[in-house]
Each structure stands twice: as C-alpha cells, then as structure tokens.
Design goal:
- The chain folds into 3 domains: 2-239 and 355-413, FAD/NAD(P)-binding domain, CATH 3.50.50.60; 246-352, Flavocytochrome C3, Chain A, domain 1 (Alpha-Beta Complex), CATH 3.90.700.10; 435-517, Methane Monooxygenase Hydroxylase, Chain G, domain 1, CATH 1.20.58.
- It is an alpha/beta fold and 532 residues long.
- Helices cover 34% and strands 16% of the residues.
- The chain is globular and about 65 Å long.
- Strands 1, 2, 5, 6, 7, 8 and 15 form a 7-stranded mixed sheet that branches. Strands 10-13-12-11 form a 4-stranded antiparallel sheet, with helices on one face. The chain has a 3-stranded mixed sheet with strand order 9-14-16, covered by helices on one side.
C-alpha cells in the first residue's frame, strides 16, 4: 500500500504542472505521480505545433482569441470557460518559461509567433516543430528537483476506489461519490497495489488508439475516461473526435507521424492527386480553415478520387526556411525518401484529439468528490464541438492551476480512508491466449474507423454499437476470469471509450463541428452538451 497526500495519474503537461504547484505549496506533504510507462511517454511529448496565447498585444487581443475559439467550437463552447483560458493563459505560459521551457525567438529577442487554422492572428509560441517535447523536458527536469514529489513509472492504474469497494451500491444517481485513491498494477513486481490519497488528479491524456489511424502514441487508450465512467462519474461530448487533417501517409505505420498545422501556417498548400489546390472550394479561409472543415474536405477529395491520401505542397517555402521551422518533419520525410523541396508530402487525416471527456466544472472538479481532471481527458467546456489548434496545451496549464487552487481548499476537509480492502484476484487465472485480447482491439479499431470516423450515418453507428456490445461482453468475461494485465485493461478501456463515442454520436441528431452525420447534414439549433 502507498499513501499520498496528493496523487496524480499522468505525467504530461497537466499532471506535472499541477504536481509542481501543490508540491511547492506544501513542501512537507507527499505528492505521488504515477505513469504507466516511461515518464516522458505522454501525448504532450508529441505535440508539434505549439501553444496558443495572446502575448503580442499590439497586433492581437483577448477578444480575438476568444472569438476564434468560439467560432471553431461550433456553438458548444462555454463562453465563460473560453474567457478564463484565454485571459489566464499568458501568465501560465510565463510560468513554464520560468521553469525552463525555451520558445523560439527572433534576433531582437521577441517570440517567433506562428499561425494555425482558425486563428485570426499569429499567436502560437513554439520550439521548432517539437514544442511538446521541449515542454515535457523542462517540466521533468523541474520535477526532479522537488524532494517531495515521487514519480512512479511503469505503474498501470486499473480502477478508481470509491464506496463501491467498501460494499455500498453506487449508481449514477448516488449522491457524493468519493474517490479514495486507485488500484494499480506495479509492472516491476506484477502486484496490484492500492494507492490511497486525500486528493486525486486524473491527467491521463487522450484515446486516439480507439482508431486504426492516429497520431497518438500507443499509451493513448482512454484509461482515465473509462475508469471515471465505470465509477459512475459524468462523461460528456465524446462524439467530438478531432481528426488532424495532415498526418504523414505511411501504410501500416502506427502511430501516424504528425505534420503540424504550422506548416500550412507557413504557406503549405493542400493539393489533390491532380495537383489542384482544392481548399478554396470548401472554405474562404482555404488551408487555414478550422480542422473539422479541412479534414472533411480531404476525406471528400479522397473518396471522390478513390485515393488514400492527398498532398501537402511545401516546395515554395524554401529549404532553409523549412528546415529552420520544421527540422523534425524535414528529417522524417527525408528518412522515407521524400525531399520536401521538390516533392509533395502525402497526407491523410488521422484521429488526433478528444474534445470531450470527464465532465468538470471551471475548477477542474469532476462529479466524484476529491477527484479532479485536466488535460485531454477532461471536458472543461473550452473546445465545444471542435478544438481550435494549439489551445490544448494552454487549457492544460490553465486548468492544472485552477485544480491546484481548489485543491488547497478541498484538502482541508479530506482524509485518507484506511478501510479500503486489498485487491481481490480470487478465482482468476492466467490468460491462455493473448490473441483474444489483441484481436479484440484490432476489431475495435477497424469498426471505429469504418463506422465512426470523419463522416457518420445512423446505420453505421447502429452497426458499430452491435459489434461493440459483443466485444464488451467478451472482454468483460476475460476480465472477470483472468489475471489483469496492461493489455487486458487497455482493451477494456478502449472498448468502453468506443461505446461512449458511439452512444453520444447516436444521441446527437444533427451535424455540428467534428460530428458529421449525413442523415442530419445541418445544425439543428439545439445547443446542448450530451452527458452520460
């Protein structure tokens, strides 16, 4: 058993920035951060483009950033949340700079600001094309200097501990469900341990692995969202899955290599197989339209032509300029035989970001007492039906800070519950065939990609749900009769996330933002979030 004053699940930008603040506020308290693989293997690490923030008040304004976010969100953003994130964001950015994050600057020492789809001004701070990796590096180095932060790697969280584990019946209508910590599988000794805490923060990242093609790393299996749903917490807006328009097309390669939107901000143009720059036919903003519009446009061009990709033309940008801004992309393309100075880059949409997730209020509180959530696993009200590019890192910083502020109040009334039973593995055996798990995940990824992708129909959603019901039944039988493993738990979580995406997509009888259903091609005007 491990006891902690503060427990954080996830070691990306949201979890680590929160950990630093609570640790500095309470140097005498124990702060535990757990991650299921290596400390830096997070969605944060793979963020290329940058972080949006109003830092140039001569040419930009909070109002412009707010309007850009609201427009991209398709009418479902919470206006107050948008205002909070945009206005509090610059101060949070200054904090990670103080922690050692290095954003690109020009010769005069001013930030080099980029522009991405949906933004009306240049406001994206970046570090080459590996911004997330730079932020993760700075945060991990700072965390390593805090003696009261314990970082536990290779520790897979299985479930949230609530009153259910004390023998009480817990349902969606149960008032005051409480979080006492988590059960976690220690991958060093293969033992299931209980980690008890007064306050728990979920910063567990996204769920891109529910799809066959995704820019997300292998760890993005929706663990936090699935665990909160099983614990009878509230989940919302899962139908809004953002497909990044421009992932490098490499058949059979997973995860897909991301070609950041900043390339289009520097002048990159999308072209179809005939060499036509097609985006002007879909939106007056052309290649810098919001991601939902660009992804649907590419999807339509591919289906009309019967191709599996389109092209991103960067030949006119110039070699020196391209390498200066996008060295990582340049080297990746070169490694597979593409010279961006005289060849176009084959690209196709790939699952990238979940705009919905664990429902929180404006302080990061979930519907379960003493459990907070922030980062991609949370649904704060910022993104609505479609996330504005580079708002995700900003949201993680703002809400990790707000979770920290509220934690300082909530912790005064929270205690560690010493009556939690040990994990009960009685009656379970080792799985005889791992293929039962791996094949279930493959089936899930194919059905989600084929039936619940960029364009949907009622019939596709109905078929997906029938197959999900069968996968759920099979994986639950395995879970109840065999020893738990990361593979089994991830499969279980992915199937749960797939169910949530399909169920909420079935409820939404309209097309809005990232959810496009050809049976309901227009917005209905019913502006509401769907909560399960």
């Amino acid at each position: 058993m491990i006891e902690a004053d503060i427990l954080i699940v996830g070691s990306g930008i949201a979890g680590l920035s929160y950990a630093l603040k609570v640790a500095d506020h309470h140097p005498d308290q124990k702060v535990v951060v757990i991650t299921k693989t290596k400390a830096d293997e997070t969605n944060t690490k793979y963020a290329q483009g940058g972080i949006a923030g109003v830092t140039d008040l001569e040419n930009d304004s909070f109002d412009k950033h707010i309007q850009d976010t609201l427009i991209a969100g398709g009418g479902l953003c919470n206006p107050r949340t948008v205002e909070i994130v945009v206005k509090e964001g610059p101060e949070r950015i200054r904090e990670i700079i103080d922690w050692g994050t290095r954003f690109d600057k020009d010769a005069e020492g001013d930030f080099k600001l980029g522009r991405e789809g949906g933004h009306s001004e240049f406001r994206i701070l970046h570090h080459k094309d590996v911004t997330g990796m730079e932020i993760e590096r700075a945060l991990l180095e700072t965390v390593s200097r805090r003696k009261n932060i314990e970082l536990i790697k290779h520790c897979f969280v299985i479930d949230i501990i609530t009153q259910h584990h004390l023998g009480f019946l817990v349902t969606k209508s149960t008032p005051d469900i409480e979080c006492y910590g988590v059960y976690a599988l220690n991958l060093y000794n293969n033992q299931i341990e209980k980690i008890l805490s007064r306050i728990t923060l979920f910063a567990t990242g996204g769920n891109g692995q529910v799809y066959r093609s995704t820019t997300n790393p292998k760890i993005a299996t929706g663990d936090g969202i699935a665990m909160v749903y099983r614990a009878k917490g509230r989940i919302e807006n899962m139908e809004f899955i953002q497909f990044h328009p421009t992932a490098l097309y490499e058949p059979g390669v997973s995860p897909s290599f991301l070609i950041t939107e900043a390339v289009r901000g520097e002048g990159g143009m999308l072209r179809n197989r005939n060499g036509e720059a097609f985006m002007e036919r879909y939106d007056e903003r052309k290649d810098l339209a919001p991601r939902d519009i660009v992804a649907r446009a590419i999807d339509n061009e591919m289906k009309q032509a019967g191709t599996e990709h389109v092209f991103l033309d960067c030949r006119h940008i110039g070699k020196d300029r391209f390498i200066e801004h996008f060295p990582n992309i340049y080297e990746k393309c070169r490694s597979i035989g593409i010279d961006v100075t005289n060849q176009m880059i084959p690209v196709a949409p790939a699952a990238h970001y979940s705009c919905g997730g664990i429902k929180t209020d404006q302080w990061g509180r979930t519907s379960i007492r003493n459990l907070y959530a922030c980062g991609e696993c949370a649904s704060t009200g910022l993104h609505g039906a479609n996330r504005l590019a580079s708002n995700s890192l900003l949201e993680a910083l703002v809400f990790s800070h707000r979770c920290y502020l509220d934690t300082m109040i909530a912790e005064k009334n929270s205690i560690i519950n010493e009556n939690i039973p040990d994990w009960n593995a009685q009656g379970t055996t080792h799985p005889r065939e791992m293929i039962l798990i791996t094949q279930s995940v493959k089936e899930l990824q194919f059905l989600m990609s084929d039936y619940v992708g960029i364009v949907r129909t009622d019939m596709r959603l109905q078929r997906a749900m029938k197959r999900l019901d069968l996968l759920h039944e099979e994986i639950e039988t395995l879970y109840e009769t065999t020893f738990v493993s990361p593979q089994l738990c991830e499969a279980r979580n992915l199937i749960t996330v797939g169910y949530l995406i399909v169920k909420e997509a079935q409820f939404r009888k309209e097309s809005r933002g990232l959810h496009y259903n050809t049976d309901y091609p227009e917005k209905s005007g019913l502006l509401q979030n769907i909560v399960l």
